[in-house]
Design brief:
homodimer, 291 residues, alpha/beta, 12 helices, disordered C terminus
């Protein structure tokens, strides 16, 4: 997905949010904003928003010397989600359709996103997403591809959301590589965040080798790109993975909540929608869901 | 009031909103955004937000060749407010305290503001503001100064809001100069907008000689500055007049709704507050209201 003009104000807001979370002084905040403005003067609209966002957050880390501004927030998100884990597991166990319930829970967990907006009510979101109609519903295709798949690459999004991913991975019953960021950016999960959420118990934790939000393949490590190539199925969580892989084709399934008006327009759905979108062009003639 | 870093994302958003309203093509929108970024690289935080906002809106008008992007919107706002005028007048006529009711109505009309947000429900706002407690309440001081005043300068804000101002001017029973913008900016009232709202029936319509939002005295015409100096009392409507005149001293009274988090912080009140604030430092030990 290309960058829209409406992303520009949001990049500046994110720069300020991250700078403040990193403890930047007023002078540092101004320096970060000035650097962000210079950067935005030079970017190409053909870049994806996470490619530009990645540079903005790198600026913040460099200027403040804070390697991981969202560290404390991520820890708290993981702790909060882990407290809910028994209830999440019980919902899946008691479901007539565990895959469907686990898919919904994994999408519910995608509310833990500090890019677009920092306020949310986690359990209220779970209850909403358990019954909310899908705005794009490729669950039928996902089930079909899963039935044939040997190896799954699962692209993580945010710390805390990891716990909800764990519930989905448990029902997949397939070998899963769980890919987190190579270095901190926003509240995206890194390896320590995934470990704290217990993902090592259900998957092999790997990292993209990149500190950009989403998955910009050309910025990822060779080892990661090999895993990506070899995977039969890629589950891509969250907005940034959609923004960076929307053209990646038929082995990618996007699971997300739409929290940004620009992405809503790009996907062709309303703000607040839940989406399970197949990367295949056949998605337009999608298979029926099976609830 | 100085410019805060949080104003920067908002300047970009305003540039886009105005560009689209002016009918800018995608290429023009990008050019406007690039020029806005360059401008923001150079501005000083000691400037007031309207001084920068004025430059942003000038950019939009120059790039699009549209002298008044908000022309149609302003006409519709005025028509909508005029339809309510009989109800507004009746509220004042039937009030036990006409000045108080008219002050509240004038503040209610300040919701017609396309800078911070373009959505509002006009009559619901009237009903809310008629009973909402003031977050800053210098009505006692206003009444005291009015009792001594010979000549009032009333600084208008938005088209449509003009109709609500008319109701307040009618109860003042003093000679009033009603000052609008010298040239179009945002949905701020200009002389034709004030005429369409019937302000010539209750006041002498003058203009600031400037196309900046608010009242930047050094950018105003000499004729306007003379009026400002000679006035015994200045009623300054809306956020931009607060932003540009907050240091102007004891003859200015600010009447506004707080629709922007930066201004909320500067005034020391919550978002959504209604404010009648005296420019005097004595405002801190304010006189009692008289409802």
């Amino acid at each position: 997905m290309k960058t829209y003009l409406d992303c520009y104000p949001c990049f500046l807001r994110q720069a300020l949010d991250a700078a403040r979370l990193a403890g930047a002084s007023d002078v540092q905040q101004k320096a970060i904003l000035d650097s962000a403005l210079e950067l935005l003067c030079q970017v190409e609209l053909s870049s994806t928003p996470p490619a530009i966002g990645g540079q903005i957050h790198r600026l913040v880390r460099q200027e403040t010397g804070n390697h991981d501004p969202y560290h404390v927030v991520k820890q708290e998100s993981t702790r909060q989600a882990l407290r809910l884990y028994p209830r999440i597991s019980a919902l899946v166990d008691q479901s007539d359709n565990p895959l469907n319930t686990a898919v919904r829970l994994s999408i519910a967990g995608n509310i833990i996103d500090l890019g677009p907006d920092r306020k949310y009510d986690l359990w209220a979101t779970v209850e909403r997403v358990l019954t909310q109609p899908f705005a794009v519903d490729d669950r039928g295709a996902l089930r079909a591809v899963l039935a044939q798949a040997g190896r799954v690459l699962y692209l993580a999004d945010n710390a805390g959301e990891t716990v909800f991913d764990r519930a989905l991975i448990e029902v997949l019953n397939l070998p899963v590589f769980y890919a987190v960021k190579g270095d901190p950016v926003l509240n995206d999960a890194t390896a320590p965040d995934a470990l704290a959420a217990g993902l090592d118990q259900v998957a092999e934790i790997v990292d993209t080798g990149s500190d950009a939000p989403g998955t910009i393949l050309e910025c990822c490590s060779e080892a990661f790109r090999r895993l990506y190539t070899m995977a039969d199925l890629v589950i891509a969580k969250g907005q940034a993975n959609y923004e960076t892989l929307s053209e990646a084709g038929s082995k990618v399934f996007f699971l997300l909540q739409v929290k940004c008006p620009v992405i809503a327009r790009d996907v062709g759905v309303s703000l607040g929608s839940i989406v399970l979108k197949w990367g295949s062009s056949e998605s337009e003639n999608r298979l029926e869901g099976d609830e």
